[in-house]
User: What shape does this take?
Amino acid sequence: MKKMPKQLLTSAVFLLICLSSKAQIHINGRNPSRSFWGGPQNAVSLSFGNIIWVDGKNVALPGYSEPLKAAHTFGDFFSLERYNYSSGVKVGYDRKLSDKFSLRTAFLIARLVTGLVSRTDLITNDKSRIAQLSVLASYLLTKNTDHRLQFQWLLGPEFLYANKNVTVSQYMVNDDDTPENYNQKIAIGEVGIVTGLGISFRITEKFALFSEGTMGISLPGKGFKWSNSGIGLKYNW
Assistant: This one.
């Protein structure tokens, strides 16, 4: 076998060195997808939040409770009957999709205080309930993804189901009616589009404090919703 020419041997050695260097850079270098999947990918949360819901399809009561007849003269000038309020425990789940985007779902079921309670001409016993499911896209506004304090922009649909169950005592519509108890029981389902902001502070790798608030309209746009989570706790993994 003939000996390999010196120039060819030199070229072969140089090529091996280059290939080795490139392989080393690829193995030890920064993985482009590392930050994409880095850190916790899931989170569960618990918070105590509030909901203010303006019912665009509210069924108004024209009458009054007989002992409060005098208050009925003033009427409901501010349409307070349409305003409903609820507060309760909200359970959430977050799934990270990328460094900036995540999907957040939250569920709340609680007692609902309807606008009928605010009327000064009614004697009411309110046993209403509300359930709400939020499915929101979350976009990280903070540039540094490793920063302890982070801000998010939230956008997405909320599904609401309310069971209005209010008993009005000594109810009458006309002055010559006989006062009697009246029960207004209505089931309402709505879909709303909401947007808002969130803030979170990482305590440890596993735990973080958070708060968020959203507002929006219910389709086809006659109702209004506003909600917040208070200060809640997240567990990340």
Observations:
- Helices lie at 6-28, 34-37, 69-72.
